[in-house]
Design brief:
Blueprint: H1 18-34, E1 38-39, H2 44-51, H3 55-67, E2 72-73, E3 79-83, E4 86-87, E5 94-97, E6 102-105, H4 108-117, E7 122-127, E8 134-140, E9 143-148
Helix pairs in contact: 1-3
């Protein structure tokens, strides 16, 4: 089995400051731990309490996350549907974290990147978008330790060219 390597693109974490990333990661973990969307209104108080922030700071950070494509929401319900690399909606890209939690990723590349977001080993089960062949990748210590099928490779592209990247995965 040849080594499967990944070249990182723009690091989403670097698009935001420390406080913005705290809220972003809180929302990510809320979706993963609870298995459903995070509602920007209904779940606001939990985030504000956990991160010791007031309403003004919360609203300001939410605006920045939306403006810089840090998350995609349903405008009608204000549910966070996508927040890199997590999809609160079902997809064919399943991730199991070393801590046992499971979630759907927005795409297979995002599923692989989850090991870096959560700083833990992951197992990815997906399928080739071209032919439907099942894909299984075990990420250990930031590397693809095991993968099937043999000869697997991944393609990605610059997302900056898209206005709504979440719909393009």
């Amino acid at each position: 089995m040849s080594e499967l390597t990944f070249k990182p693109g723009q690091n989403v974490h670097r698009k935001f400051n420390g406080r913005q990333n705290e809220l972003r990661l809180f929302i990510i973990n809320s979706i993963v731990s609870n298995g459903h969307t995070f509602n920007l209104d209904d779940d606001r108080q939990k985030a504000m309490d956990a991160l010791s922030m007031d309403q003004a700071e919360y609203d300001e950070i939410v605006a920045v996350l939306l403006e810089r494509d840090g998350m995609v929401i349903n405008e009608d319900t204000r549910d966070v549907n996508f927040i890199y690399p997590v999809s609160a909606l079902p997809t064919g890209h399943h991730v199991t974290l070393a801590d046992g939690r499971q979630f759907c990723a927005m795409c297979a590349i995002d599923a692989i990147g989850a090991t870096f977001t959560f700083h833990q080993d992951t197992v990815v089960d997906s399928a080739c978008s071209a032919c439907g062949t099942p894909v299984h990748i075990e990420m250990k210590d930031g590397r693809a330790a095991k993968y099937e099928p043999e000869g697997l490779y991944a393609l990605s592209f610059q997302l900056e060219e898209l206005s709504n990247w979440a719909g393009s995965c």
